[in-house]
Amino acid sequence: MKHDQPQAIAPDTLPEVITRYLTAHRAHDTAVAIAAFTRDATVIDDGNTYQGTAAIERWLNRSATEFTYTIDLTGAERTDASHYTATHHLEGDFPGGTVDLRYRFTLRGDLVERLVIEP
Fold first, then answer.
1. Which residues, 6+ apart, have CB-to-CB distance to 34 below 8 Å?
2. Is the pTM of this model over 0.85?
3. Model pLDDT for residues 39-96, shown as the tens digit of each residue
4. What 3-state class would DSSP assign to 27?
């Protein structure tokens, strides 16, 4: 599948479902965060794949308690109507202590179908 080149956008213009997920994720509100995903969604984070909302919910609960960190949204891009990237700067007690991560979202309708988190 060929996509257009990503275009930088203002972070506050990300689709509502992405903003809702990111806000809930930062607040460790698993119920709101999981509601942003399709039932068959996939999340890939730190080399692990989580398929379906039950697996994604377990990942969210684990990631909320594994480390303490701050997260700041530093940039956003739109590739097309279904593909967005939100870049975050994290600092905390995880190995390395600081990292910039790209959250690559694929939307289906008004929900997140796929999320890939990588440096």
1. 53, 56, 57, 60
2. yes
3. 999 999 989 999 999 999 999 998 777 788 889 999 999 999 999 999 999 999 988 9
4. coil
